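The records we work with from here on pair a chain with its fold. These numbers are not coordinates but entries in a learned vocabulary of local backbone shapes. To see the layout at work, look at the sequence and tokens printed below.

. . .
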Amino acid sequence: MFTGIIEALGKVQSVEPMGSGLAFWLSCPFVQELSVDESVSHDGVCLTVAERTTTGYKVVAVQETLQRTSLGSWQPGQLVNLERSMPAGGRFHGHMVQGHVDAAGNLEKILDQNGSWLLTFKYPAAYASLLVEKGSCCLHGISLTVFNLVADTFQVAIIPYTWQHTSLSTLQAGAVINLEFDVVGKYLHRKWSLENN
């Protein structure tokens, strides 16, 4: 379980084919604290630490993950939003995030508002029922509040701290973004669907 509050930026060191998947080596500030089998959110995707050295660690993305997320486009040198799983006694600073990406969206526009940034995202219209105005959505692992929600786009406002401490500032219009919709909303939608069909 994660909360969508980014802990650090990691950097992709290498990308290697592994069967139908890809293996990634990354570096990050807390690499010495990681253990093999630990779950870490990478741009919102929960991946397991498979190997660790003193300077980096390895994770593997299987074909299903590559098809649903932006991980297939990762390149060496790319910055990645990282969050370790929440400790049992920790605080929920964001919202409940599983690290299970539902769909990929696109960053359509970045508007610099002189001290904050307004980002517009396009998402698959099939997921419209899982978003609500002023609700939470996890974008590239970041817990953000949705507003100006319409049929297939929504906006988020980014404060300077988030802009400076996540990979959002490195993205350009057209970038593919990992989307995880609120798990509570997904359960409620499923219950309603079963009762009304």
